[in-house]
Design goal:
- There is one protein chain.
- The chain is an all-alpha fold.
- The protein has a domain of 111 residues.
- 65% of the residues lie in helices and 0% in strands.
């Protein structure tokens, strides 16, 4: 049984295409890993500096002033009914201090899964279809005999779906 491929029955040109496909797959995998790992590393690197800046007294005063203004505006005389934040600390400080592990886990989970499936879709779109053996051409491949039968059936009205 002989396999037919776009490169011809002899398979000329297949090793170069295989190396190119493996190289593309390797680059795609490397890009996925960089996109998956780089943001958490950067977040952990800048986290300490951000927390130091948020510990300054001016930041807490700004937050307290904001909460007081919200309380004054939320009354019946205020222009808009607002919900007063319950936290005594700025939300960014709480998030960076208490929830950074959860944020990194969520990034790795959702970013990893989304990136993995996007990669699978890209590989499936770019990779050429594998050639079918000669005996399976009628099952999805190009078959001239089937094309002739389809043309005859169309002329006889067998595919119209209407009354015969």
């Amino acid at each position: 049984m002989e396999n037919f491929s776009p490169a011809g029955p002899s398979g000329a040109g297949r090793p170069a295409a295989g190396r190119l496909a493996r190289l593309g797959l390797g680059l795609l995998l490397a890009a996925w890993l960089v996109i998956l790992v780089l943001p958490p590393i950067l977040l952990l690197r800048v986290r300490e500096g951000w927390l130091r800046d948020l510990e300054k007294p001016g930041q807490q005063e700004n937050w307290d002033t904001f909460r007081r203004d919200m309380a004054q505006q939320s009354g019946p005389a205020g222009p808009v009914q607002r919900k007063i934040p319950k936290s005594a600390e700025p939300p960014l400080r709480v998030w960076l201090r208490d929830y950074v592990g959860l944020a990194i886990s969520a990034w790795l989970l959702f970013g990893g899964v989304l990136g993995l499936f996007t990669g699978i879709l890209l590989v499936g779109t770019v990779r050429p279809a594998r050639s079918l053996p000669q005996n399976q051409l009628g099952r999805g491949g190009h078959n001239e005999e089937q094309d002739q039968r389809d043309a005859q059936n169309a002329q006889q009205g067998k595919h119209s779906g209407g009354p015969s």
